[in-house]
Design brief:
Layout: E1 4-10, E2 23-31, E3 34-41, E4 50-54, H1 61-69, H2 75-78, E5 83-87, H3 107-111, H4 114-121, E6 126-131, H5 133-144, E7 149-155, H6 164-176, H7 179-187, H8 190-195, H9 198-208, H10 213-224, E8 243-248, H11 254-263, E9 269-274, H12 281-284, H13 286-299, E10 312-313, E11 319-321, E12 333-337, E13 351-353, E14 355-356
Parallel strand pairs: 4-5, 4-6, 6-7, 7-8, 8-9, 9-12
Antiparallel strand pairs: 1-2, 2-3, 3-5, 10-14, 11-13
Helix pairs in contact: 7-9
């Protein structure tokens, strides 16, 4: 922590009636693996963890999370928690391009930067929200520092290292596709890319014309060189905190998230498969994800008075037996969403529920 820079900024965003703009403080702190930049919104709340986010490859905290945290219903959450948005090294706005030959940190080393952030802020615990590579980084951090993580929301996580077949496919794709196109294929489904919606055009333009594209490629390479997290249900290597796994139906990482769900403790894990959300649910379905996040926080004992409005028990709810548990906070839930409206169920513990929203 030899060097520290702090900049005061205020962002413009859509506000609800009666709201005032949030002040954001951006900090850069030195770690054993280089400098890392993070932005803090709000002030610490007594006896409450911070919400800490980590973005995916090709994005930064704004392009990955802004639609979610600016969503109207999310304001109830952000009023109750201080937020820390971490940018991977070289991904922050205005970041200079790393010099040729720069050794970019591995995902494990990126996870090891987080304690420096929490030490500087004097935060003791967090609830992590990560997407893709960011979900992996937060999972690795939680394995190494379980006492500091109260909960995790992991979107599009792939806990597995690339196998030989994956590497061969990656190399072949690299011969015919640019780095930006490969990253877009990581972020979005082929169906979304084929439709070339306004959202896809926006993010294709962001990534293709990024002034720090060389840095993005380094982060991309670190992601593709990740180690296996080695999750094992009932084993020593597992996430000890409540976890909500999220993936879009037909998303590029659907199979990986399903496999991850099978390896985690079913009494601590919720699995949310979102229809009509594509590869980036936090961008395409911020309302549904906000309601699920509120429900997740309630299960952890926070925001007990929050009103649920969007997700409801399906008329065709199917309940199947699962492992028995102790206490209301230990539940295994699988939530499969469609595009109707209602409220999330609180069904019996130890059951799998099919839910529409």
């Amino acid at each position: 922590m030899a060097e520290l820079q702090e900049v005061q900024i205020t962002e413009e965003k859509p506000l609800l009636p009666g709201q005032t703009p949030e002040a954001a403080k951006t900090h850069s702190v030195e770690t054993p693996y280089g400098s890392v930049t993070f932005t803090v919104y709000g002030t610490p709340k007594p006896k409450r963890p911070a919400i800490l986010t980590y973005h995916d490859v090709g994005l930064n905290y704004k392009s990955c999370f802004q639609p979610l945290f600016q969503f109207g219903d999310m304001q109830e959450i952000i009023q109750n928690f201080v937020r820390v948005h971490v940018d991977a090294p070289g991904m922050e706005e205005g970041a200079p391009v790393f010099p040729l030959g720069y050794q970019y940190p591995s995902l494990d080393q990126l996870a090891d930067m987080i304690p420096c952030i929490l030490q500087y802020l004097n935060f003791s615990t967090v609830i992590g929200v990560g997407v893709g590579a960011g979900a992996y980084i937060l999972s690795r951090y939680a394995l190494n520092h379980p006492d500091t993580v109260e909960g995790l929301v992991l979107i599009n996580i792939d806990p597995n290292a690339k196998g030989w077949m994956d590497w061969a496919a990656h190399k072949l794709t690299g011969l015919t596709s640019s780095v930006s196109e490969m990253i877009l294929g990581h972020l979005f489904s082929q169906e979304e890319l084929s439709r070339n919606s306004e959202l896809i055009q926006k993010y294709r333009n962001i990534i293709t014309h990024a002034p720090n594209l060389e840095n993005i490629e380094l982060y991309w390479n670190s992601y593709n060189n990740r180690r296996d997290l080695n999750f094992e249900r009932g084993g020593d290597i597992t996430l000890k905190c409540p976890v909500m796994l999220v993936v879009g139906d037909q998303a590029p990482h659907e199979d990986a998230v399903v496999e991850c769900n099978s390896k985690l403790d079913p009494t601590q894990t919720s699995f949310l498969k979102m229809a009509d959300s594509g590869g980036q649910p936090q961008l395409t379905q911020p309302g549904k994800l906000t309601e699920a996040f509120k429900y997740f926080l309630q299960g952890m004992g926070y925001m007990a008075s929050s009103c649920m409005t969007r997700l409801s028990r399906s008329r065709t709810a199917s309940l199947t037996s699962a492992a028995s548990i102790d206490g209301n906070r230990s539940r295994s839930r699988t939530l499969s969403q469609s595009s109707e409206s209602g409220t999330l169920p609180s069904g019996p513990p130890g059951h799998t529920m099919e839910v529409s929203c």
